[in-house]
Universal stress protein
Amino acid sequence: MGLLVPYDGSALSKAALIRAEQFDAILDEGVTALTVIPESNRQYARDRGWIGPDETYTRAAVVANLERSVSAISPNAVFEFVTVGRSAPYGTIANRIRRYARDADVSILFLGSENAGRMVGSLSVGSAVASGGGYDTMIVSQPVPSKIEALEEAFPSEGILRSETESGAKLSR
């Protein structure tokens, strides 16, 4: 069993990672941050801040930047990635996340999403991932986790996102 955070470097995926760490401080299951990377899609990576505007696209650079971003927020989290085709068909990313969650026997998936459950299901990657069986889903919809006293005592969130930005880690969307 473990806790899984689909991670793309967005403010909401960062907030979901913080929330997963807070739960892990109590549950002690371990946190994995998972990124699905479209192979050789330079524009996709740039649009998400995974590489800089002048940085050459390589899988190694994308992975290193993502791993650095995860580590700045959650030093104990395991970073994993899977790749999909450059122009993967609709639903591929959500399917890879669900497959990973099932194969890893995830107990809770922490999903940072502005629209999961609010948009028509067929339009939302978040709702597609949340509908996966075998695990609970916690939807984090605020870019700064709300203060829940017991969780804050277990893993304080104050200043984490600010210190991640100050450390020079990329992905400050």
